[in-house]
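Tokens as discussed.
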């Protein structure tokens, strides 16, 4: 019989799908990596597994401990699934712009959810960064993976996402476009693809970041925007700008319009950050 021991054993090896309608008039082959086919529904499952395994190996997370993390939802889902398998509790701190249905998903996994205002500075004691720091200190056995600084994030994509893209395109990928949030996905994947294509006759892979208008990555001040899970008002340590060739700013309106088009024209029911990445790619 062929089966997995646990749902988290199914993370990764997501397929590529060609976009054929929203790319009308574009000669290039544009492929979307369908990360929502991961068990938790997003790319963040990849880092969740790596974070917890490394924390256990270091002794930072002990049996019966509590995982505390600031998240817009997807990282929390991945961490909650790993926690369920290993017997940890979870407390997730979300900005109030995160949709209630996302918060309810975290609660359904048994996590406690704390909501903080979006419109405060990162160093404000009420920001979701600051509140997660405080809770990790106050809760006995608390551990904060800290996706914004944890180098296991980029490492997980260097080890999995990058090789998958290279292999599935037979080494012919020319551009990699990804939304930039904590920076782990684009950094780790880019490092692998740049190494793999370094001596390629046709040239190395170009790395393009997609960013919501207002985020610091594309020159903004960190002002609020509506697309969730991407953009920042801080510069995370997980992001390596040296591997990125260009960052393209995309408005909320463009992102959400493309999100609706992907559902209606391509059959892909995705979030605003995916719509944003497709706009940047096109």
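Sequence:
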């Amino acid at each position: 019989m062929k089966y997995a021991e646990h749902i988290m054993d199914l993370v990764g090896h997501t397929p590529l799908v060609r976009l054929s309608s929203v790319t009308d008039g574009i000669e290039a082959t544009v492929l979307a990596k369908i990360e929502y086919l991961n068990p938790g529904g997003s790319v963040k499952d990849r880092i969740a597994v790596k974070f917890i395994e490394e924390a256990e190996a270091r002794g930072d997370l002990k049996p019966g401990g509590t995982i505390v993390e600031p998240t817009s939802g997807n990282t929390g889902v991945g961490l909650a699934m790993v926690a369920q398998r290993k017997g940890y509790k979870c407390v997730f701190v979300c900005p109030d712009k995160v949709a209630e249905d996302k918060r309810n998903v975290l609660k359904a996994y048994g996590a406690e959810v704390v909501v903080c205002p979006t419109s405060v500075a990162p160093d404000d004691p009420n920001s979701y960064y600051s509140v997660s720091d405080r809770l990790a200190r106050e809760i006995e056995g608390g551990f904060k993976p800290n996706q914004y600084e944890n180098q296991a994030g980029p490492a997980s994509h260097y080890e999995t996402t990058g090789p998958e893209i290279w292999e599935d395109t037979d080494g012919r990928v020319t551009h990699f476009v990804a939304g930039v949030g904590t920076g782990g996905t684009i950094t780790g994947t880019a490092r692998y693809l740049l190494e793999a294509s370094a001596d390629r006759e046709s040239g190395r892979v170009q790395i393009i970041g997609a960013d919501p208008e207002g985020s610091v990555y594309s020159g903004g001040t960190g002002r609020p925007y509506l697309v969730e899970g991407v953009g920042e008002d801080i510069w995370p340590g997980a992001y390596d700008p040296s591997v990125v060739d260009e960052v393209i700013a995309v408005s909320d309106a463009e992102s959400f319009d493309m999100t609706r088009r992907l559902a209606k024209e391509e059959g892909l029911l995705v979030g605003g950050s995916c719509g944003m990445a497709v706009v940047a790619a096109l």
